[in-house]
């Protein structure tokens, strides 16, 4: 089967045995460029693309908005913490127009928030702790998206089948309860529609998991924190948002 995230098509059979070495990992094949066509400056080196991208940002944005960037030199006070997928097609700063300094952001496969666990999820836990306890963000938002490869992988996984990747399956299993709910309540729905439902249910599981972090639970209880779910459908150009 073929799944896709982070701008790569990953050709993999999720039912095949776990590879024994790095060289045996699933083959990665570059997608045809989509809106990365903007980067398709013929002959331009990849590093030059980054340099010219910054030059354009510096001229068009940074130099023209000192009122935005000057205060940020002293510190940040973002209102939002955003969890979004690593997928190259759904950068929340671009799609939601979030300005530098507005959103403390974590991106990972399928925009998952795992439950509180000091041994397994220190990266996510530390980001949430810093955002809530130090930066005092007001809103925690988790944003799923259409055609999410991580969600498709979660829905495709068969019970008891060995993992094919070192990390991917274990990570997306965070959304297992959402998968169970979708398969129970929408058993006869076509696979692609189940994926769409799961993209949103997985957000709800992540919002629920956020409440396992003590400072989040406390903030929600005393009204200083709000939990918000979102879904960006880039096929139809629709953004949905809901409060928990
Ligand atoms: Zn995704």
Approximate helicity band = 25-40%
**Nearest-angstrom radius of gyration?**
19 Å
Order of helices and strands: EEEHHEHEHEHHHHHEE
What is the CATH class of the domain at 76-243?
Alpha Beta
What is the count of helical runs?
9
Listed once per kind, the bound small molecules are: zinc ion
Low-confidence stretches: 1-36
Cα-to-Cα separation, first versus last residue: 35 Å
In CATH, the homologous superfamily of the domain at 76-243 goes by the name: Carbonic anhydrase
Strand order of the largest sheet: 5-4-6-7-8
CATH architecture of the domain at 76-243: 3-Layer(aba) Sandwich
Q: What does the main sheet amount to?
A: 5 strands, mixed
CATH topology of the domain at 76-243: Beta-carbonic Anhydrase, Chain A
Secondary structure tally: strands: 8
Average of the residue pLDDT scores = 87
Q: What share of residues are in beta strands?
A: 15-25%
Coarse morphology: globular
Structural class: alpha/beta
Which labels suit this protein?
alpha/beta, five-stranded mixed sheet, Beta-carbonic Anhydrase, Chain A, 244 residues, globular, 9 helices, disordered N terminus, 38% helix
């Amino acid at each position: 089967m073929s799944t896709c995230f982070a701008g790569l098509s990953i050709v993999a059979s999720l039912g095949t045995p776990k590879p024994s070495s790095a060289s045996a990992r699933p083959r990665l094949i570059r997608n045809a460029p989509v809106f990365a066509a903007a980067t398709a400056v013929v002959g331009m080196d990849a590093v030059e693309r980054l340099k010219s991208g910054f030059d354009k940002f510096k001229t068009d944005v940074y130099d023209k908005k000192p009122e935005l960037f000057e205060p940020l030199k002293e510190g940040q006070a973002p209102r939002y913490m955003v969890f979004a997928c690593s997928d190259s097609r759904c950068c929340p700063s671009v799609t939601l127009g979030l300005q530098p300094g507005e959103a403390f952001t974590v991106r990972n496969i399928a925009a998952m928030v795992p439950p509180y666990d000091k041994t397994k999820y220190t990266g996510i836990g530390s980001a949430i702790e810093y955002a809530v306890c130090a930066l005092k963000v007001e809103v925690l938002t988790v944003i799923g998206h259409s055609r999410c490869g991580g969600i498709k992988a979660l829905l495709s996984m068969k019970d008891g089948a060995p993992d094919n990747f070192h990390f991917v399956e274990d990570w997306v299993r965070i959304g297992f309860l959402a998968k169970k709910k979708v398969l129970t309540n929408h058993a006869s729905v076509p696979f692609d529609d189940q994926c769409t439902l799961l993209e949103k249910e997985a957000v709800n599981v992540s919002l629920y998991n956020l409440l396992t972090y003590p400072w989040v639970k406390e903030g929600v209880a005393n009204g200083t924190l709000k939990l918000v779910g979102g879904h960006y459908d880039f096929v139809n150009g629709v953004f949905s948002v809901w409060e928990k």
